[in-house]
TrEMBL record:
Domain STAS positions: 1-107
Membership in a protein family: Belongs to the anti-sigma-factor antagonist family.
InterPro entries assigned to the protein according to its UniProt record, in alphabetical order: Anti-sigma_ant, MlaB-like_STAS, STAS_dom, STAS_dom_sf
Any Pfam family hit: STAS_2
CDD domains from the UniProt entry: STAS_anti-anti-sigma_factors (cd07043)
Gene3D superfamilies attached to this UniProt entry: STAS domain (3.30.750.24)
GO terms, molecular function: anti-sigma factor antagonist activity
Name by which UniProt lists this protein: Anti-sigma factor antagonist
Lineage: Bacteria, Bacillati, Actinomycetota, Actinomycetes, Kitasatosporales
Origin species: Streptomyces asoensis
Length: 107
């Protein structure tokens, strides 16, 4: 897993899972705490995430809200879009461009 960027926009790549969750949480919380306005997470380089990784994203979403910021997801890969729809988190998280639920392949 790698994260690059600043307190305004971060690119998350690789696998966001139980092994990388602690490092990701630290980096993302620091970005939230050090900035103002929207924090954009570009997930276009993310290969996969598990429940722990999704929990990290939700924790950052909550922390951003407490800091008066908004977490915005950009470039969410289709398989992760399906997970967000299945968990109904697409209704809670800000997703740039939204998710075209109708266009997602059924599994």
């Amino acid at each position: 897993m790698h994260i690059r960027g600043d307190h305004v926009e971060l690119v998350v790549g690789g696998r966001l899972d139980v092994r990388s969750a602690a490092d990701a949480r630290t980096a993302l919380h620091t970005a939230v705490d050090d900035g103002v306005g929207d924090l954009v997470l570009d997930l276009s380089e993310l290969d996969s995430w598990d429940a722990t990784g999704l929990g990290v994203i939700m924790g950052v979403h909550r922390r951003a809200g407490r800091c008066g910021r908004r977490l915005v997801l950009r470039g969410v890969p289709p398989q992760m879009q399906r997970l967000l729809v299945a968990t109904r988190l697409h209704r809670i998280l800000a997703i740039e461009g939204g998710i075209g639920v109708e266009s997602l392949p059924r599994v």
